[in-house]
Write a structure and sequence with these properties.
The C terminus is likely disordered. The protein has a 5-stranded antiparallel β-sheet with strand order 1-2-3-4-5, with helices on one face. 9% of the residues are buried. It is of the alpha+beta class. Among the domains are: 64 residues; 84 residues, no CATH class. The protein contains 5 helices and 5 strands.
């Protein structure tokens, strides 16, 4: 009887051991499953964080781009405002120029007759003046008449050349000037050096320095110069050409006598 009981106890113990072993195995399987699930959740968290980080970086880039676009817009707005002011100013200038253009014809109607009068007055002055470069001066007057008939020359250019001619006439009235040319005297053409002291005196000397002449603006004729002035005339010509130092000279001046 006792042996039967012992066998029953052993059998019961074995069954209990198997039951415990089964429970442990089941528990181990549950833990493994939980660990796998936890690992999957962790991986999912990592992927989610990566997505969040990526989205954040993209949002930062978009923010930078937005700020850059805003800055560029502000700069473009300032520039556009500046360009608009320039355009407005140019339009105002164009309007002013148009008004001036519209008045050009009226201006020409007043200026053109004046220019013809100026040319006529210049020609008359040259003919009445002492004969300093007379041929060249009369030729200049003719050139002025030619440009007045030239459609390719603007009114402003015509006026500029006329005023330059007047300036050249003013220059003849100052300083010592000497130049070589031809003198018609007694029916003979003589090569001479002309000399004039402004418009106060006009003289000529032969190239061999032996003869001299003076223009008498009272009679409008050339006269023989006294031999006593030949040396002074020679020096005056050299002074005018800057071939010698300036000095005091004694020369006859008809204008001074007439003024007395």
């Amino acid at each position: 009887m006792t042996k039967v009981i012992n066998k029953s106890k052993i059998a019961a113990a074995l069954i209990g051991a198997f039951a415990i072993t089964g429970s442990v195995t089941a528990a181990a399987q549950s833990i493994s499953t939980l660990q796998n699930e936890e690992a999957k959740i962790h991986e999912a968290d990592i992927r989610s964080q990566d997505k969040i980080n990526s989205l954040f970086e993209q949002s930062q880039e978009l923010l930078y781009e937005y700020r850059a676009i805003v800055d560029e817009y502000e700069q473009l707005k300032v520039y556009n405002d500046h360009v608009q002011r320039l355009v407005d100013d140019q339009n105002a200038q164009l309007a002013s120029l148009q008004r001036q253009i519209d008045s050009v014809e009226d201006t020409k109607q007043g200026v053109v007759p004046l220019m013809y009068k100026m040319i006529d007055a210049l020609e008359q002055f040259v003919k009445l003046d002492i004969p300093i470069h007379r041929d060249a001066r009369l030729a200049r007057v003719e050139r002025l008449r030619d440009i007045m008939s030239n459609a390719n020359v603007t009114t402003s250019e015509q006026f500029r050349q006329i005023t330059e001619a007047y300036q050249a006439e003013m220059d003849y009235g100052s300083g010592l000037i000497a130049y070589e040319g031809k003198l018609n005297f007694g029916g003979e053409e003589i090569s001479v050096d002309f000399f004039h002291l402004g418009r106060a005196a006009l003289m000529a000397q032969s190239l061999d320095l032996k003869n001299g002449w003076i223009f008498n603006d009272d009679t409008n004729e050339w006269e023989v110069l006294d031999d006593a002035y030949l040396s002074a005339l020679t020096k005056a010509i050299r002074m005018a050409r800057k071939q010698t130092a300036p000095d005091l000279l004694k020369l006859p001046i008809y204008a001074a006598e007439r003024a007395e």
